[in-house]
Write a structure and sequence with these properties.
190 residues, Jelly Rolls, four-stranded antiparallel sheet, elongated, Env_Response_Regulators, Cyclic nucleotide-binding protein, RmlC-like_jellyroll, cNMP-bd_dom_sf, DNA-binding transcription factor activity
Length: 190
């Protein structure tokens, strides 16, 4: 839990009182590789913080093809945030791509605390600004303007993550077939 609290404090300083209350809603959970944390169609009830392992955030189309939107590594927060906010079933799946240890906490309890704890509200604002505005905006532009090759090179920059992904995860994330990914790699002489 210390990693989670440390990470939260990088966004906004939490009071000792808020920290103690948060500890009461945190639960350590383990999931095996390929186990779903959340399935599309289910209500998203939790926020997650990854202590160990790798999560994939994806959608499936009518043909069963998987499109990965995001990967979450250690010390990352993950949730089907839009589903939580709108109180609707999630349209995304969250799956363990490796064995995972995470801390889950009730979205309902957390959101109630955000309403009453100013320091936690400051954390939430700072987190959303950094991760849902600053980080997300370039990704949206990349999808519209950059080729699969350029997006591959961008993903390749994060070698720690890149080496943990299977080729079909990378192809799905880029929106290409495994054959197209092979061509990109051959072109780059990998």
């Amino acid at each position: 839990m210390e990693k989670l609290l440390f990470e939260m404090n990088t966004y906004a300083a939490l009071s000792p009182a808020t920290t103690e209350i948060l500890k009461t809603i945190f639960q350590v959970k383990q999931f095996k590789k390929n186990e779903h944390i959340l399935r599309a169609g289910e209500y998203a009830k939790y926020y997650y913080f990854i202590c160990k392992g790798l999560l994939g955030y994806y959608k499936s189309n009518a043909d069963g093809n998987i499109i990965y939107k995001m990967f979450f590594e250690e010390n990352s927060f993950c949730a089907s945030t839009a589903a939580i906010i709108e109180e609707k079933p999630s349209t995304f799946n969250i799956i363990a791509l490796e064995d995972v240890e995470l801390i889950q906490y009730s979205a309902k309890a957390f959101r109630e605390l955000v309403r009453t704890k100013h320091d936690l509200a400051l954390f939430q604002i700072a987190y959303l600004e950094k991760n849902w505005v600053v980080k997300k905006e370039p990704l949206e532009i990349e999808l519209k303007w950059e080729s699969a090759k350029e997006r591959y090179l961008e993903l390749h920059k994060n070698q720690v993550l890149f080496k943990r992904l299977k080729q079909h995860h990378i192809a799905s994330y880029l929106g290409v077939t495994p054959t197209q990914l092979s061509r990109i790699r051959k072109e780059l002489k990998e």
